[in-house]
Backbone:
């Protein structure tokens, strides 16, 4: 057998080519929000309960971003996911022709724990109040050990004129354990797992021209920033920042600045129950609600993409052909499996791990299409299989021929005497996987060939002779000493 990976591709949100970033505000429906959280942020292999939302429903939704025909200098980095803002999600969409755009809901949000956390982190002064909150809370658990990576981009209209601790926006992702003390990393005290010090640094930087020491701070325009012209302060975590004043980097994004995709991890222990609080907030001096910020979040494929694949068994030969068992490699139980074993466009099986009978020898392109019922993501992968066992050829009626192979077993040379009724043919020595070790173009109906195998490793091989249509007319096992 030969196995050659042909293609892998992903089908994501359909989207209008005229707009690179599209947002989808939620309706006033908690079921829609839970679906979005499951599909785009956590996946469907976890249990989410007791979900609640605080904020305007125009401040939260889904987004998709097309990479085709983009005019962005360094791209955006995320293709789809959840967006949470302190204003209207539509303000995240370019063109970025208003440096101070925003949507003030002017809704005060009282949360002593969050306020004290931001004060203790020196992000806001004690006199700053919290406004225009967008807050998602829920309980989550998993029946198995579950590690999930999140890609996060934070953008803001507070860049670069309004970066200060007197009216800064902030995003936090708090995790606490509400079950018995099962997970040693968490307890009843919420921990913000998305501070800059927790960024997994091996992600490709879209802002690779800059380098800096990562200082651990909550995510705000004041803690991921360039040089502050207002206060004359040096930049902090500047390698995470992309300037977008007047859309000079990406006019398809409405914010004056945003971060590169930052990668964070959260690992759940079986039987532990966690409480999640995702919040983006506008810190406001007096009662004037400041400019908007938004955070884009998606479940990363970095730790799951290698799990989409399939393997197959060695053929089992019988009088009808070659029986092959296929096994998909997938981490999700929410999949629909569609198998096409002979490239005719017809689905041959929907079993996760089917068995198929190949009745003829030859080359087959086997395609598996997997659709995740939870996320709607469709992934397709194809491999070429060559069914080339001697047993299946021996069952066929071969053309009248006189072909002899000697010596067999062979050591340094393999001789072949051919007397067949054709002028052109192909001679191939292949290993057990179907890989071609030697190849010769045969010419003439009566010939003697000598094949040098002095550098071929000892083992079992097959000698195959085929016509111009790649139909085998001779197939014999060869032992190389």
Residues:
């Amino acid at each position: 057998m030969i196995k050659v990976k042909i293609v892998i591709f992903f089908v994501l949100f359909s989207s209008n080519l005229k707009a690179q970033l599209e947002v989808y505000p939620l309706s006033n429906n908690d079921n829609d929000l839970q679906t979005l959280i499951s599909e785009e942020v956590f996946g469907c292999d976890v249990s989410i309960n007791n979900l609640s939302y605080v904020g305007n429903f125009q401040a939260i939704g889904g987004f998709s971003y097309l990479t085709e025909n983009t005019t962005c200098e360094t791209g955006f980095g995320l293709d789809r996911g959840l967006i949470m803002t302190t204003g209207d999600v539509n303000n995240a969409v370019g063109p970025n022709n208003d440096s101070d755009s925003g949507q003030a809901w002017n809704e005060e949000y009282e949360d002593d724990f969050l306020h004290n956390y931001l004060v203790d982190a020196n992000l806001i002064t004690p006199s700053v109040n919290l406004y225009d909150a967008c807050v998602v809370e829920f309980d989550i658990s998993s029946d198995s050990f579950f590690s999930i990576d999140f890609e996060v981009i934070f953008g803001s209209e507070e860049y670069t004129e309004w970066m200060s601790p007197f009216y800064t926006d902030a995003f936090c992702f708090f995790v606490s354990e509400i079950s018995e003390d099962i997970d040693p990393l968490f307890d009843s005290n919420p921990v913000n797992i998305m501070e800059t010090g927790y960024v997994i640094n091996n992600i490709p930087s879209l802002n690779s021209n800059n380098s800096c020491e990562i200082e651990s701070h909550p995510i705000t325009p004041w803690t991921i920033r360039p040089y502050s012209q207002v206060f004359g302060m040096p930049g902090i975590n500047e390698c995470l920042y992309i300037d977008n004043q007047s859309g000079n980097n990406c006019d398809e994004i409405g914010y004056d600045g945003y971060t590169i995709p930052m990668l964070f991890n959260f690992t759940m222990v079986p039987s532990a129950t966690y409480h999640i609080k995702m919040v983006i907030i506008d810190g406001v001096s007096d009662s004037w609600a400041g400019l908007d910020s938004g955070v884009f979040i998606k479940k990363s494929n970095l730790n799951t993409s290698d799990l989409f694949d399939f393997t197959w068994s060695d053929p089992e030969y019988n009088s009808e052909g070659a029986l092959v068992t296929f096994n998909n490699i997938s981490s999700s139980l929410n999949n629909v499996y569609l198998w096409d074993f002979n490239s005719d466009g017809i689905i041959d099986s929907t079993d996760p791990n089917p068995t198929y009978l190949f009745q003829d020898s030859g080359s087959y392109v086997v395609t598996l299409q997997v659709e995740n019922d939870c996320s709607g993501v469709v992934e397709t992968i194809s491999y070429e299989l060559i069914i080339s066992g001697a047993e299946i050829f021996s069952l066929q009626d071969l053309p009248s021929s006189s072909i002899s192979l000697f010596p067999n077993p062979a050591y340094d040379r393999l001789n072949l005497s051919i007397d067949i009724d054709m002028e052109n043919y192909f001679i191939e020595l292949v290993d057990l996987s179907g890989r071609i070790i030697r190849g010769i173009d045969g010419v003439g109906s009566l010939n003697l060939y000598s094949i040098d195998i002095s550098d071929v490793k000892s083992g079992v091989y097959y000698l195959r002779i085929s016509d111009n249509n790649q139909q085998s007319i001779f197939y014999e096992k060869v032992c190389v000493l």
Remarks:
- The mean pLDDT is 81.
